[in-house]
Amino acid sequence: MKTVLHHATLPWLVALAALPVPAFAENDPAFELKLDIDQDGKMDRAVVMQEPGGPADLYIYTAAGEEKLDPSRPPDFVKKGLTEDRVIDLEGKGKGSLAMTSCFGCGASKSTEDMLTIVYRHGQFLVGGYSRSWDWNQRTSDGVKTTVGGCDINYLTGRGTVSKDLEDGKPIKGKFRPVPLKDWSSDKRPKACDF
Questions:
Q1: Hey, which residues does 180 pair with through a beta bridge?
Q2: Helix, strand, coil shares of the chain as percentages rounded to 5?
């Protein structure tokens, strides 16, 4: 009877061990921010964990903004590998939105900067906005070719603009719809934001 009970509990123990809980005791968060992202009047907490050179993971704890975060408390939302680039800022914007800024190259001769705006609407976390700027220098046989530009997509209004070579932004044809944050990846980035 003991053996049967041990075999029956083993899968549950494995499942519990696999739950995503950040290791706050071992590592300090790269960024931590208190905000009311779900707009229920209670402060929430967003935490970004990122090892140097590794992907950034986002953890959101609802109604946990005012208390000391218990490392054993599972997050209410987790997005592993939200970006491969280095996170340089996490800030609250109006209406409970959360903006995460990351960069590749970070000011080097080949660099990009991305800002992902996260909102909570209709019971789920969504990508409400995405912007990207680039300054890319490539050596050619004639010297250096510089590509400069940017894009700004507002998924909540369905509109976006793109600029190339220091020109003013021009509207992007087509409509954009919010993307569930759980499904977001750089592959979901609009083609207009590639250079």
A1: 126
A2: 15, 45, 40
